[in-house]
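Q: What does the assembled structure look like for these inputs?
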Amino acid sequence: MNLTLHVWRQAKASAPGRMERYEAKDVSPDMSFLEMLDVVNEKLIADGKTPITFEHDCREGICGSCGFMINGVAHGPKSGTTVCQLHMRSFKDGDELYLEPWRAKAFPVLKDLMVDRNAFDRIIAAGGYITARTGSAPDGNAIPVPKASSDQAMDAAACIGCGACVAACPNASAALFSGAKISHLGLLPQGQAERERRALRMVAQVKAEQFGNCTNIGECEAVCPKHIPLAVIARMNRDYLKASWKDRGAVKQDESA
Amino acid sequence: MSPATAAGSQNRALRFFEATIVKKAIVAVTGAVMFGFVTGHLLGNLQVFLGPERINAYSAFLKSNAELLWGARITLLIALFAHIAMTIQLWQIKNAARPVGYVKKNNSHSSLAARTMYYSGPVILAFVIFHLLHLTLGTVHPHYSETDVYANLVYGFLQWPVAVSYIVAVGLLCLHLRHGISSMFQTLGFNHPRHTPRIQAAASVISALFFAGYASIPLAVMTGVVRLSSMSL
Ligand code: HEM
Ligand code: FES
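A:
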């Protein structure tokens, strides 16, 4: 099949960008979306032009590197699927596709479809950890975890940090991501020691990164390749409101630093 | 990678009111207060269908206790003011968070009500101001009477552009509430696999009933169902 692509081209972070049109010819329905772009890029290289930059690594939907908007939908039309796992059989001959990078102040475009997502790493560094003793591995079942908590924690832990939630959110909010990270550890016994501090610090970092605020719209949940539920945002709100009320007015210095 | 390179406030807890989650919680609590008012106000207004004596007596009863009346008015004004002040701040934060928009953006996964909260809100505010000038202060009313609420309603809604704008405004209010009623639970941290879908269903039903109830009054005047006995039809 043949497709028309309109792709955001931007040479570097500080350069202006614009949409450019490309024809993708003889596309096999069995190709993944990224393989289709590989073929387009080979032709661009053969023609002496700059290939389209997009981020990718595992290409099996687990690392969270890939992702861009296809016709205004993060990761494209297939639910629960990263763009690397999206196949061209999801499209039809003659389709016209608009490819754009994630758009958020906190995710500056580095080049073409690739954005800088270090803001997510800084949010994790702010509180997305637990304190654990080093040394030999602990006994498997030494700490009992209720089944319901472990299921919910696993659902939240499925987040691969791709950034689709921010991209899809009309407010450019990172609530689904931070909610997933805060819930994942906050649901487990191992995560209790830092639970309040984690919520306070990670939410503070989200704000420092200039993400928007959540208005419970739900676009994020719909595009999340791991189907992280909005419930994680309610859990984050609960943890944060509780911790922040106890702590109100205080400007705390970091005890551990 | 060095943590906290961006504006770096990670080493301190945000002051309580700086956090968007707290600002949003204030929106939810003040929204709930106003929702309570909108519920009571509807029940009060529907007495227009029981005739002039009933609703005029009800109005006199409300005005008879100045402490309660002013207590409620001041509470509502504070709620409205805080609701708006917080949403203006959140609106600014949200706008700054995406300086470059999309050429194409599909928002088909969310409800119209949720996406239009920042638009339905200001229209409701304009309506609230007009409504107070119209039926509470009488400034923009053709035949205002301090004591005859029933006649105020009839004369007010016989001006059809006024009646139509009331219907449109309460429509937007109900759209606002359709998202707001369930959103406030999520905002305050309540989400449950069994109860959340029920709350959402209840929000749809309640907002539809509210629309029917509020819109029925101007409609009843326009169609002559509610009229003054001195008027011949
Ligand atoms: C007068 C101007 C008003 C403005 C500008 C306004 C604006 C907003 C905005 C922007 C939100 C947040 C949307 C979201 O989080 O999805 C909101 C939420 C809400 N509003 Fe209003 N609103 C107004 C009046 C009202 C009134 C009169 C009521 C009640 C009758 C009301 C009830 C609510 C409720 C219950 C919420 C849900 C809170 C939440 O999402 O947690 N609002 N409003
Ligand atoms: S490349 Fe790893 S998730 Fe797509």
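Residues 231-246 of chain A form the longest helix (16 residues).
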